[in-house]
Amino acid sequence: MPGVDLINDIRRLRRENGKMTQQELADHVQVSRQTIIALESGRYAPSLVLAMRIANVFNVGVEDVFQLADESEE
After folding, report:
1. Contact present, 61 and 55 (Cβ < 8 Å)
2. What is the phi/psi pair of residue 20, to 5°?
3. How far is it, in rounded angstroms, from Cα 23 to Cα 37?
4. In this predicted structure, what is the pLDDT of residue 74?
5. Which residues, including other chains, have CB under 8 Å from residue 52's CB and lie 6 or more apart?
6. In angstroms, rounded to a whole number, what is the distance separating the alpha carbons of residues 49 and 55?
7. What's the distance, Cα to Cα, between the start and end of the chain in Å?
8. How distant, in Å, are the alpha carbons of 2, 13, 20, 65 from that of 17?
9. Where do the domains of the chain lie, and which CATH numbers do they carry?
10. Is 40 helix (H, G, I), strand (E, B) or coil?
11. What is the pTM of this model?
């Protein structure tokens, strides 16, 4: 998304939750593994629905998974 840097902790959350694979997470949230790869690498910003599904898998809030990067730190 132009002008918006979204960072996420998906990889960390997967590791902390039984070393969940990208495919397992994709299956839980009904997307492709490629979508999870793109999310983790920061190449794709999720829809609100997808962000909520991912947060629900890990039983955390959306803000615990996704954060806006502070542009002043760049």
Report:
1. yes
2. -60, 135
3. 10
4. 46
5. 62
6. 10
7. 17
8. 32, 6, 6, 13
9. 1-56 (1.10.260.40)
10. helix
11. 0.86
Q: In whole angstroms, give the CA distance from residue 34 to residue 23.
A: 9
Measuring CA to CA, which residue among 46, 18, 52 is closest to residue 32? Answer: 46
pLDDT digits (tens, 9 = 90+) for 8-61: 999 999 999 999 999 999 999 999 999 999 999 999 999 999 999 999 999 999
Three-state secondary structure call for residue 39: helix
Only one residue has tokens 């994709």, namely 26
CA 48 to chain centre: 11
Determine the pLDDT at residue 4: 60
